[in-house]
Write a structure and sequence with these properties.
The complex is a heterodimer. In chain A, β9 and β10 form a beta hairpin. In chain A, the strands form three sheets. Chain A has a four-stranded mixed sheet with strand order 1-4-5-8, with helices on one face. Chain A has a four-stranded antiparallel sheet with strand order 2-3-7-6, with no helix packed on it. A two-stranded antiparallel sheet of chain A has the order 9-10. The model of chain A has no long low-confidence stretch (mean pLDDT 96). In chain A, 50% of the residues lie in helices and 15% in strands. Chain B folds into three domains: 115 residues, Orthogonal Bundle (Butyryl-Coa Dehydrogenase, subunit A, domain 1), CATH 1.10.540; 134 residues, Butyryl-CoA Dehydrogenase, subunit A, domain 2 (Beta Barrel), CATH 2.40.110.10; 121 residues, Up-down Bundle (Butyryl-CoA Dehydrogenase, subunit A, domain 3). The radius of gyration of chain B is 22 Å and the shape is globular. Classes of the chains: A alpha+beta, B alpha+beta. Chains A and B meet through β9, α8, α9, α10 and α11 of A and α8, α9, α10, α11 and α12 of B.
Chain lengths: 380, 401
């Protein structure tokens, strides 16, 4: 047995670098301001993050990245989640990159991934539509073949980071909807193309969700990632590998909220003593601590399974259920402790509450992933 | 027992009268956004105008004695007035900020002269009132007031007020007056060191500063509520002692009278909970094809909807109980349940409706009611957090401090 649940030396270093970055370059005032921008990011922060190599953290060296295991990416995103730092880091650096790696041809990988690692191309997945679902059957956006190229029509709703992206990975129907998952293709669409319109969705908890409309958008045959009609299995694979990295971001969020709740319980005095002495407050903090630790270890085990090529599907669903619920509940509990001060838009708790909400459904909400576990565990 | 809410013959006649009056006097074109912050000043003026008409009729505060401008009605008739107004989606009266909390305190604790001076303008809808209790260091620990009200050194019939209040009032400021809790004695023991004023809001030295918070009220207040909270600062504010309610060491007693009302007791006639968020949510579950599909495909979601239904029934029955045979601790119990229920419903809405629960544009369902509901569901503070309410419930059950 070689059980070792410590971070490696290089993961520790990465964590420290990311922590310095969050503390120095993205303090609470910066994060609050970024939340209000359409892109969630500033050019300066994007450049710095690119220079450190974060956008290519999992991209193979041959495509211009630093080729780290997913666990390392988890360590990075856990630290970014402390902020929580918004911006298309996950959308492009993890999910977008993995889709290209899973679905793209060799030529496409060589063309796209170095630009992603260099922060020049910013990718985001445009999958969900008005009939909100993470299953293939709900996709109604069409890609019609025309003179060897394609014309895309449809609405991609609740697309995260679309305002920041230079390119969308659009999931569109190129064949009949007979078997779910068949007949879907992936297209790399330039966000500046004619017929594309993007709008950030308002609503405090809508966070980074956008509406993307595709109105007769012409794309070249070469923009199709992989083979026609075979996009779904590769996409599913990429989503599954990405999920635990997103979960790690939520773990970071839980950690940050727990820390602020602990700090507040020590300094907030009511009835002549710090509120942390009251068992009701202790109960809530212990519940938060339980959520955090449940999210952390389900997340890191699933990352380890993926990195070591073990069967990981069940573990990925588990991590997504636990971490999404944990982040939501930790924030709700913290609001009960913080009361009035936590409702201020400039209080970091409100940043996390916002993130815990807009990321709750992203890549499938807990009930969806519970159902996937049920299918794996039982004959149902 | 009789759980029926059907009107008796006599009440039905009265309801007809109320309806006739509302036909003539209620604004027809009122726009009622779910987030009250979206109410325009013109819309607010329409509401005020309507409230003044209700006040003239005595129906803004139907339970209060006629001699002060109330309606002099019993519980049943008050219930009828409230129901008929609610049926027209005119928002819960009084639309008057914390007047509904302050007026009972005045009625119970003020001198006869003060009642005659203060109540008519409140009950007739002319004066608006904010409750100013909470301070940075007096949240759950309400008695820990730091805003001082000390006798003026030379003019002994005046007090001088200094300090600051937080998370108070509403979007419709400034009000006419504040029900203001202060500390009048720095030597006297806790609870016996406070003084309550009904202070005009336009005294020199008062500053109101709006706060930028993301909820617009608690979960139960979607479609009503304060919309916004403020800080109010007092800088050497001089006030005559005739504004003091009760003695200058009786502040806690007066505060208790309003808190009892706020926690669901006292003379408040409860309205049957018509939580529009819950109603609209069930309508989505019944009519929205995408939602129905999600429910059909996922038994967990279906069960969570049933739990929401069960919670709504418990809340409804406890409301009836509180209006009929109140039990000890029952007021804060209902208040706490409403908050915990809201928090549970928020997760169910996010799962069943998906991110539509957070949408606030043309994609929003039911004009964005769920988006407002989601934000308000984490707002536990007004009237006490669940943890604070547990203290009050325990006290009611005879096991607390």
């Amino acid at each position: 047995m070689s059980l070792d649940l410590q971070l490696t030396e290089s993961e520790e270093m990465l964590r420290k670098t990311a922590l310095d970055f969050i503390q120095r370059d993205a303090p609470k005032e910066v994060i609050q301001a970024l939340q209000e921008t359409d892109t969630g990011c500033s050019e300066e922060l994007w450049r710095k993050a690119t220079d450190i190599g974060w956008l290519g953290v999992i991209i193979p060296e041959m495509y211009g990245g630093t080729e780290n295991p997913l666990t390392t990416a988890g360590v990075l995103f856990e630290t970014l989640g402390l902020g929580p730092l918004p911006g298309p880091f996950f959308s492009s650096g993890i999910l977008g990159s993995l889709i290209v790696l899973e679905a793209g041809t060799e030529e496409q990988k060589q063309r796209i991934l170095p630009a992603v690692a260099a922060g020049e191309q910013i990718l985001t997945l445009a999958l969900t539509e008005p009939e909100y679902s993470w299953e293939p059957g709900a996709v109604q956006t069409t890609a019609e073949s025309k003179n060897g190229d394609f014309v895309l029509n449809g609405v991609k709703l609740f697309t995260i980071d679309a305002q920041a992206a230079t390119h969308f990975i659009v999931v569109a129907r190129t064949g009949k909807k007979t078997v779910p998952g068949k007949g879907l293709s992936l297209f790399l669409v330039d966000s500046k193309s004619d017929g594309v319109s993007v709008r950030r969705m308002p609503g405090f908890f809508a966070g980074r969700n956008c509406e993307v409309k595709l109105d007769s958008v012409k794309v070249a045959r070469s923009a199709m990632l992989g083979n026609k009609g075979e996009g779904w299995p590769a996409l599913r694979q990429a989503i599954n590998k990405s999920i635990p990295v997103l979960c790690a971001y939520k773990v970071g969020g839980c950690q940050a909220v727990l820390e602020m709740a602990l700090e507040y319980s020590r300094i907030r005095v009511q009835f002549g003593q710090p509120v942390g002495r009251f068992q009701r407050v202790q109960d809530m903090i212990i519940e938060m601590f339980n959520h955090l630790e449940a999210a952390r270890w389900t997340t890191y085990e699933s990352l380890w399974k993926l990195d070591t090529q073990r069967p990981a599907t069940e573990s990925v669903h588990l991590a997504k259920v636990v971490s999404s619920e944990a982040y939501w509940q930790v924030c709700t509990l913290a609001h009960r402790e913080f009361s009035g001060v936590g409702y201020a838009k400039d209080h970091p708790l409100s940043f996390h509450t916002r993130a815990s909400r807009y990321l709750y459904n992203y890549l499938g909400d807990p009930s969806y992933h519970r159902q996937q576990i049920a299918r794996l565990l039982t004959g149902c | 027992m009789d759980f029926s809410l059907e009107y008796t013959k006599e009440q039905a006649e009265f309801a007809k009268e109320v309806r006739r009056w509302l036909d003539e006097n209620a604004p027809k074109d009122l726009v009622s956004p779910w987030d009250i912050r979206k109410t325009s000043p013109q819309e607010w003026q329409k509401r005020r105008e309507f409230a003044r008409k209700l006040g003239e009729k005595g129906w803004l505060y139907p339970r209060f004695p006629r001699q002060y401008g109330g309606g002099g009605l019993d519980v049943a008739h008050t219930f009828v007035v409230n129901e008929e107004i609610a049926n027209r989606n005119l928002g819960p009266p009084p639309h008057y900020d914390s007047g509904g909390l302050a007026a009972p305190a005045i009625l119970n604790c003020a001198t006869e002269e003060q009642k005659k001076r203060f109540l008519p303008s409140m009950l007739k809808g002319e004066a608006t009132t904010w409750q100013l209790f909470t301070e940075p260091d007096a949240g759950t620990d309400e008695a820990n007031q730091q805003t001082s009200a000390l006798r003026h050194v030379r003019e002994k019939d005046h007090f001088v007020i200094n300090g600051g209040k937080i998370f108070v009032g509403s979007i419709y400021g400034p009000p006419t007056q504040f029900l203001l809790l202060t500390k009048s004695d720095f030597e006297a023991p806790r609870h016996g060191n406070l003084a309550m004023f009904l202070a005009p809001a336009n005294l020199p030295g008062i500053t109101i500063q709006p706060l930028d918070l993301f909820p617009s009220g608690i979960f139960a207040q979607v479609g009503s509520g304060p919309g916004r909270k403020n800080s109010v600062f007092f800088d050497d504010v001089k006030i005559h002692e005739s504004y003091l309610i009760g003695g200058d060491h009786d502040g806690w007693k007066v505060a208790d009278a309003t808190l009892t009302v706020e926690h669901g007791g006292g003379e408040r006639v409860p309205r049957i909970p018509r939580n529009p968020v819950v109603e609209k949510f069930f309508a989505q579950c019944q009519n929205n094809p995408n939602v129905i599909k999600r429910l059909q495909e996922n038994p967990e979601l279906l069960h969570s909807v049933v739990d929401v239904y069960i919670g709504a029934q418990i809340e409804r029955l406890w409301t009836l109980r509180n209006s009929g045979q109140p039990i000890r601790g029952g007021g804060p119990q209902l208040s706490m349940y409403g908050k915990m229920y809201g928090a549970r419903l928020a997760t169910v809405m996010a799962s069943v409706l998906g991110p539509y629960a957070f949408a606030d544009d043309e994609w929003a369902l039911d004009d964005g009611i769920f988006e407002t509901g989601e934000r308000n569901a984490v707002c536990f503070a007004p009237g006490g957090t669940p943890e604070a309410l547990k203290i009050v419930i325990s006290r009611g059950l005879g096991i607390g401090r």
